[in-house]
Amino acid sequence: MRDFTSCSGENGVQVTDPSSSSNAGKVSQNLVICIYRCCIRGRTCLITVTWTKNLMGQCVTIGVEDSCNRSLCKVEIKPWLFTKRKGSKNLEACDVYWDLSSAKFGSSSEPLGGFYVGVVVDKEMVLLLGDMKKEAFKNTNAAASPSSSLGAMFIAKKEHVFGKRTFATKAQFSGDDKTHDLVIVCDTSVSDPCLVVCVDGKTLMEVKRLRWKFRGNDTIVVNRISVEVLWDVHSWFFGLPSSPGNAVFMFRTCQAVENKPQSFGFTLFLYAWKNE
Q1: Count of C-beta atoms within a 10 Å radius of residue 35
Q2: N or C terminus: which one in the chain shows less Cβ crowding within 10 Å?
């Protein structure tokens, strides 16, 4: 099976594996990274939105890079450490607006609702996150981008999930903004553990004899879209008791393209940490 780094490279997204030896012994943190592709002043760019939560509080970071991975701008917002939960930042490449004063959270560091984060370029809303869209346009005086999806395409997500035998998150496998409930179930305490992947309550993949198949890949179908699944649960079975590692899962959509066998759309990386 190809390693996850080479697979992610085909989509132009580089994600560091926190379970590698260089990160061994580090404490896992509640982390969600979302990557969007957009066009800023005629240049293809990537906008990375990072949500983190730890003992010090919560933080969101917005960074913009060009196609050569050169940083154009970066802003860090720490509304739960300070009092500024609503505001804006004027940068050279773009303007960033946010209102997190009423944000609602679950177990993840990414808010469930009651917020907006907007990226504006030349008075056009390039990226808008959250459910307070009316308030965002009113407060920014920005116009909707003439291209689809406010000009930005959601191409990758990296998330740390925690659980004892069940790991759940939300996933978006198509461009219609439909969100699916994704659940991974694995009980490593039994004599013959297996791995089960469910989408919207339906079991779409089951791997038996997991102790011998701790790495592998398979394909599932979600709403007529092929999704390639890669897993590496080696650390769950063979990691050091004093420093247990995490499992890594990758879900990648496969789309047929004219004159090409396939192309890759959205990629989801999950780093699953077991709570003992």
Answers
A1: 25
A2: C
Residue 58 pLDDT: 85
State which amino acid sits at residue 258: E
The answer to whether 33 and 158 have CB atoms below 8 angstroms apart is yes
Question: CB–CB of 66/45 below 8 Å?
Answer: yes
The per-residue pLDDT for 173 is: 84
